[in-house]
Design brief:
120 residues, alpha+beta, 6 strands
């Protein structure tokens, strides 16, 4: 987590006047931890809030009974020298007890101060 905090708080996001946050690729409620740096990326606060609210709403809607949720999350880095991803792509598929697809959701969150341009 220290590397993400340094990249966000003392680096690119803060330098641009943004609100840096250590964004969880897999959220706390999904058993993602803030103690594992592999689960964290530097995100602008606006992008993190936009993505989190929509994803968690979908996830909790379908994590009832015996449903299962598959969720690939991919940070996309536009600059190979940056610790801050340009966007984060998330796909969620909810499967019912018999293995049938119940619902799906996808999101590309633009990592900017406002998150504007995100498709969530």
């Amino acid at each position: 987590m220290r590397a993400v905090r340094q990249a966000g708080r003392n680096g690119e996001i803060a330098a641009g006047g943004g609100d840096p946050q250590a964004g969880h690729l897999i959220g706390y409620r999904g058993k993602g931890t803030g103690q594992d740096v592999r689960n964290l990326v530097a995100l602008h606060g606006g992008a993190n809030r936009r993505m989190t609210s929509k994803l968690e709403r979908f996830g909790w809607k379908h994590l009832t009974g015996n449903n299962k949720l598959i969720m690939p999350v991919v940070p996309v880095y536009g600059d190979p020298h940056s610790a801050v991803p340009a966007s984060v792509q998330v796909g969620m598929t909810a499967y019912g007890p018999q293995g049938n697809i119940v619902d799906s959701f996808s999101c590309t969150a633009v990592n900017s101060p406002t998150g504007i341009g995100s498709k969530c």
